């Protein structure tokens, strides 16, 4: 069987990207995925959506249409890509992204993908994510205290306690303590 060709999407805005690490929300083994929001007034987007619709139409049976990998949302379209394997990530100049770069919602990206037809649930087309090229990065950083509405107050300060900002020290470089590991002291074994 011939290998499926890899296609490149038009430029779009990443929504809910899980490109650096997988999502475990609906899959215990993890899924890498991204929703690509595209503007239908852009000629490149029009060609992209027309291609995807034509790929799906190959499997339509009469009046019964198979599921498309995109949907209209407000004035734009959302195209879904996913895979079980970590996608390759590149910058605008085709350099591999370092692992510490965390692609967030709002990043402008292009996606390399393979088209796949499935028969279950009435049939449809899904897009297997292969790689992403980041043209404009919006890095995911999580929310800070101001994002939750907290104002700065007088009182406890992490720096005064010698703790890292998250309040926990997972570095293994904390103060030396006496071991209570059963491997070090056989009297701690339960039998």
Descriptive account of the structure:
The chain is mostly beta strands. It has a domain at 7-136: Nucleic acid-binding proteins (OB fold (Dihydrolipoamide Acetyltransferase, E2P), Beta Barrel). Helix content is 10%, strand content 32%. It has two helices and eight strands; from the N terminus they run βββαβββββα. The protein has helices at residues 43-57, 158-161; strands at 7-8, 12-23, 31-38, 70-73, 76-83, 88-91, 108-118, 124-136. It has a five-stranded mixed barrel. A hairpin with a 2-residue loop joins strand 4 and strand 5 (76-83). The mean pLDDT is 83.
Number of helices: 2
Question: Could you say what the CATH architecture of one domain is?
Answer: Beta Barrel
The fraction of residues in strands falls at: 25-35%
What's the total count of β strands? 8
Largest sheet: 5 strands, mixed, barrel
Low-pLDDT parts are none
**What does the radius of gyration come to?**
24 Å
The CATH class label of one domain is Mainly Beta
Helix content: under 10%
Q: SSE order in H/E notation?
A: EEEHEEEEEH
Globally, the shape reads elongated
CATH third-level topology of one domain: OB fold (Dihydrolipoamide Acetyltransferase, E2P)
CATH superfamily (homologous) name of one domain: Nucleic acid-binding proteins
Alpha-beta classification: mainly beta
Spatial order of strands in the largest sheet: 2-3-5-8-7
* Average pLDDT for all residues: 83
CA-CA gap between termini: 58 Å
Structure at a glance:
The chain is mainly β and 191 residues long. The protein has helices spanning 43-57, 158-161, and strands spanning 7-8, 12-23, 31-38, 70-73, 76-83, 88-91, 108-118, 124-136.
